[in-house]
Every structure is written in C-alpha cells, then in structure tokens.
Design goal:
By secondary structure, this protein is α+β, with helices and mostly antiparallel strands. About 30% of the residues lie in helices and about 25% in strands. Strand 4 and strand 5 form a beta hairpin. The N and C termini lie far apart (about 60 Å). The relative contact order is 0.18.
Length: about 170
C-alpha cells in the first residue's frame, strides 16, 4: 500500500541524494535528513589554478566536488606540496562542521574547470541546531574521517623510518 502522506522527491532531488550518499559526511543520512541541506547548496564554477581557500582562512563552508578535480596542498616555505587530488563525488573542507575552525591546508582547482557545491557553515549549524540526530550522524562520520587520517599519518611515519618527530602532533 502506498502512503499518500509520504514525501515524494523530484528526479533532480533523488540524483542529489544519490550523490550525497557517496560522500562520507552524508552517508549515514536518509533522504529526508539530506533534504534539509538542499536549499543551501550553491553551485560554483572554478577554473584551473583558482584557489578555493588558503590555509588559515576561516572554515566558512563545506565543498562537494560535482565535477573536476581539486588539489589539497600544504604550504612549505614559499611553495605548495600537493597532498592529494580530490575528484567528483568527494568533499573537502570538513572542518566547516566544527565551530570556530580555520583551514589547515590550501585547496586549488586542478582541472580545466570544476563545479563545486558550496554549503555555508552557518546553514550547516542552523540544521544542526534543529536536528540533533543529523548533527550526531555527521559528527560520527567526521570522527571516522579524522581517525582514518591519523591512521594514515602513523603509517606514513613508520614507513619514513621516523624522519620527523611524531610527538609534535600532540603538542598544543
């Protein structure tokens, strides 16, 4: 039996939900929970070598790569060292879900053009304030992301034969 009171979604909304379901921060959310974010996504186009944000900028938005590539870089002296390249269906700038954070890396467009969904921090926190279950699910996913990054850091440290002092990450 079909429930006549159940919300139905357009094909465009369903495609957006499928896209969001592939992104770690949103994978625990159901379609209804994802729908709260839809009015706040802004699609922006970028060109090759355009900076999305610099290290130490305020973390004012979460970015989702619809198309193209984005390089994540750490600045060393007068240049950048590329850490990874993010492709379609990935997110970056996850620290925007936390309060009062700054960027820890620089992001630069790494393809001829890229389309990014921009989700402002203020809207994320507005949803969190009214939907604690969504906040809980997304912070749990963020914890998993950060845990995996720490695991990768430790693996990198071990494989580099301790060529840097790991205890530096624990100093405040």
């Amino acid at each position: 039996m079909i429930n006549p009171f159940k919300k139905s979604y357009t094909n465009k909304e369903l495609n957006t939900f499928r896209f969001l379901s592939r992104i770690k921060l949103f994978e625990r959310l159901n379609y209804k929970e994802m729908s709260y974010f839809l009015p706040y996504f802004y699609l922006r186009e970028y060109k090759m070598d355009e900076v999305v944000f610099f290290r130490n900028d305020p973390a004012n938005a979460l970015y989702l790569v619809k198309s193209g590539k984005v390089s994540i870089n750490i600045d060393i002296e007068d240049g950048f060292e590329q850490l990874l390249v993010i492709k379609s269906g990935s997110a970056f700038g996850e620290s925007a879900v936390l309060n009062e954070t700054n960027r820890i890396y620089t992001s630069i467009i790494h393809s001829e053009r890229a389309e990014l969904y921009v989700l402002p921090k203020v809207n994320i926190h507005e949803i969190f304030d009214h939907h604690l279950k969504i906040k809980s699910k997304m912070l749990e996913s963020l914890g998993e992301i950060y845990h995996q990054n720490l695991v990768n850091l430790f693996k990198g440290y071990k494989s580099s034969l301790g060529l840097f002092e790991l205890n530096q990450i624990y100093k405040g």
